[in-house]
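[step 3/7] inverse_fold.run input=structure_tokens len=740
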């Protein structure tokens, strides 16, 4: 039985590894084969194939529900009902619409929309909207959050921006009640931590300040201050312990069996809390796990606890096979497995303090290989922070917040409990904030498979019970994580990576011992691509500090993320074509014509002295490695291009960054012919409002001819300068959910 369950789980999990999905006819054959094998001696293979087939079929249904390609970028009138709580963020409201209908086209079952301006959108309302629709599309960069994967896992078939709309039906149902409760929580004084309490009670953290998010991420406590499986489990455990404690001290009626009542109360508490939080997929997963654990405790304790974990995995993955695409799924089940490992088979009991310390030690160490595999930042202060935060939040703050929310109609009582809960959150943050600055999160670089496997083996050994002779060998196996250096770039060559940052620019230049960032991507309100894309990408590329941050000019799409980069890692020098427009704390120096060498690679900067606007003032960077040259142009226009042609610099290059994202105001015929590139890089946003790149600009490149690398089509693009090879692109790496 166990082998069949494991095989089924492995088949369901294999979906994440598939580059493409099998065609329907092959899927049908797989199902027939699996059914036949299930009733043979090799039934484990049958269960594996059956799980894989079910996962593939479910994923194909989600892909088929995406917006039709011919509707991509079109504006349609549609109507549907708002589901979930809308997110209000810096003048933008983001929400999801279920079952949208249009007289002109068949639409996906769920779409995610953004509406700029001060609009009130409430869960449960029905709206008629004019929407510019887009197929699911996300930025593709080294080890950065994959938005397309997230959309597919949520079964969102399209995104869009609202141009106009009218409410056609008022709010109704559970969603509207949750929305009213959220507004009430945000309006109830709680020592300045109203947003945190709203996140804990109804699962919506859109009002949490960016600085607080940064603290939570650095200390590994995000899972505690936004409702997650941890809260569901802790609340269920607290209710179970309440009944068990009453029975132990003799205060429970002897005529009523306490165990069924404890299990029923714990399950009801978990379900009520889950519905209060909107019953999203992570909460569903937690409720399923709680239900199975309680059922095991009530009726099936004779079977091992590992069966409970396997059965929970099967239930969750059968209900939603796409759950395996989300990092939270892997982390939550891995954490449960780790706790089962350290608390089972031990001789003697542990005090609650010992249990808490050992649990944090096991989770911090045991999840390290999983964090490395998923490319997630590792909180160095997480074990210490969670040692205090887990009992405080789970056993005190959450019960106070829930009780306060339920008792809000009672004058002073509910508000008082919320005020107390908010005060405890504030005290917690006064401890977490300095801890986050003292031990910031570590973003690991890319490790080879051998180093990762050694880390897995070392972790497993260290988690074994103390006293086993092989246990101490775990530490040497972990050492390669600290002492393995990334492969050095060859002397005289450079690696140039144009990141995928939408309608903006960020180019990373690395030589053997130096690193440079040319522009730092845009920032739109709290959505900072410097923080979300550039900084994690730099760390994923094993860059610990920048020798030079060169900001071509002062426009937001080129400098918006610079502050996050400067705050996130050491930057030795800052240079810009518009140094006067930059904050004084950056100590930016003006760009001028000069030349220098790094590790046998020649770099030259240039700026037009007679520039009359920001684009013309862009600082141009020319890089040459072993005779192969690339020209980075910023946003220079035709006039600045003419001045550059007259500068006497050697401009003929194999690679050219298309000026101003491919705008028709740049890339003049004379400039393109003089540079004569074999390949052109274009950094832009999909469906951008400026129409970049212009058709006539692309036509000039085609006449040379030059191959065009576009971030929309290829994602991040990497050039091995000095090796005269083709560029490497991330979007072309096979993923079944990724649009080519």
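[step 3/7] decode complete -> sequence:
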């Amino acid at each position: 039985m166990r082998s069949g369950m494991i095989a089924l789980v492995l088949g369901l999990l294999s979906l994440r590894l598939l580059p493409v999905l099998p065609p329907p006819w092959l899927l049908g054959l797989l199902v027939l084969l699996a059914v036949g094998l299930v009733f043979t001696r090799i039934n484990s293979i049958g269960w594996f194939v059956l799980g894989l087939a079910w996962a593939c079929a479910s994923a194909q249904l989600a892909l088929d529900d995406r917006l039709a390609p011919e509707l991509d970028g079109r504006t349609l009138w549609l109507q549907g009902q708002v589901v979930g709580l809308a997110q209000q963020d810096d003048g933008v409201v983001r929400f999801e619409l279920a079952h949208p209908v249009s007289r002109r086209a068949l639409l996906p079952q769920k779409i995610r929309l953004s509406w700029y301006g001060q609009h009130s959108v409430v869960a449960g309302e029905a709206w008629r909207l004019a929407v510019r629709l887009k197929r699911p599309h996300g930025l593709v960069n080294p080890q950065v959050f994959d938005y397309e994967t997230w959309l597919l896992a949520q079964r969102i078939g399209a995104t869009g921006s609202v141009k106009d709309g009218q409410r056609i039906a008022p709010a109704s149902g559970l969603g509207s009640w949750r929305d009213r409760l959220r507004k009430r929580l945000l309006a109830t004084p709680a020592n300045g931590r109203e947003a945190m309490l709203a996140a804990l009670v109804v699962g919506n953290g859109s009002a949490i300040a960016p600085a607080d998010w940064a603290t939570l991420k650095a200390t590994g406590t995000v899972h505690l201050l936004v409702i997650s499986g941890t809260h569901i489990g802790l609340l269920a455990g607290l209710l179970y312990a309440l009944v068990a404690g009453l029975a132990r001290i003799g205060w429970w009626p002897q005529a009523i069996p306490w165990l069924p009542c404890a299990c029923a109360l714990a399950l009801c508490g978990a379900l009520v809390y889950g519905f209060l939080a909107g019953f999203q997929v992570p909460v569903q997963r937690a409720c399923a796990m709680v239900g199975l654990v309680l059922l095991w405790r009530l009726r099936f304790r004779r079977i091992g606890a590992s069966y409970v974990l396997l059965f929970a995995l099967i239930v969750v993955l059968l209900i939603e096979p796409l759950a395996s695409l989300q990092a939270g799924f892997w982390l939550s089940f891995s954490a449960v497995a780790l706790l089962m490992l350290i608390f089972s088979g031990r001789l003697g009991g542990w005090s609650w303090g010992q249990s808490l310390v050992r649990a944090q030690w096991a989770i911090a160490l045991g999840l390290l290989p999983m964090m490395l595999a998923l490319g997630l930042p590792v909180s160095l202060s997480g074990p210490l922070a969670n040692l205090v935060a887990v009992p405080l939040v789970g056993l005190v703050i959450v019960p106070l917040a829930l009780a306060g929310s339920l008792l809000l109609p009672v004058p002073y009582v509910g508000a008082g409990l919320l005020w107390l809960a908010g005060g405890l959150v504030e005290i917690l943050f006064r401890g977490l904030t300095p801890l986050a600055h003292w031990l910031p999160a570590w973003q690991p670089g890319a490790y080879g498979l051998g180093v990762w496997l050694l880390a897995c083996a070392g972790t497993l050994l260290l988690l074994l019970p103390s006293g086993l002779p092989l246990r101490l060998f775990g530490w040497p196996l972990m050492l390669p994580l600290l002492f393995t250096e990334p492969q050095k770039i060859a002397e005289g060559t450079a690696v140039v990576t144009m990141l995928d940052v939408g309608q903006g620019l960020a180019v990373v230049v690395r030589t053997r011992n130096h690193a440079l960032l040319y522009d730092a991507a845009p920032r739109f309100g709290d959505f900072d691509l410097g923080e979300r894309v550039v900084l994690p990408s730099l760390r994923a590329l094993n860059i610990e500090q920048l020798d030079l941050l060169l900001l071509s000019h002062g426009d937001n799409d080129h400098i918006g993320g610079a502050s996050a980069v400067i705050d996130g890692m050491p930057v030795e020098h800052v240079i810009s074509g518009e140094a006067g427009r930059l904050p004084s704390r950056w100590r930016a120096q003006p760009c001028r014509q000069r030349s220098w060498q790094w590790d046998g690679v020649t770099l030259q900067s240039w700026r037009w002295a007679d520039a009359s606007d920001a684009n013309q003032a862009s600082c141009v960077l020319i890089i040459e490695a072993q005779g192969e040259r690339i020209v980075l142009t910023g946003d220079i226009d035709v006039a600045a291009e003419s001045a550059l042609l007259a500068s006497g610099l050697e401009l003929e290059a194999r690679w050219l960054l298309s000026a101003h994202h491919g705008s028709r105001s740049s890339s003049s015929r004379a400039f393109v012919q003089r540079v004569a590139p074999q390949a052109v890089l274009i950094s832009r946003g999909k469906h951008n409002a400026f129409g970049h790149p212009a058709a006539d600009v692309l036509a000039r490149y085609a006449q040379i001819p030059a191959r065009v690398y576009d971030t929309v089509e290829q994602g991040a693009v990497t050039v091995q300068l000095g090796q005269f090879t083709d560029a490497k692109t991330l979007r072309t790496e096979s993923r079944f959910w990724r649009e080519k």
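[step 4/7] annotate
The longest helix spans residues 413-438.
The first strand starts at residue 75 and ends at 89.
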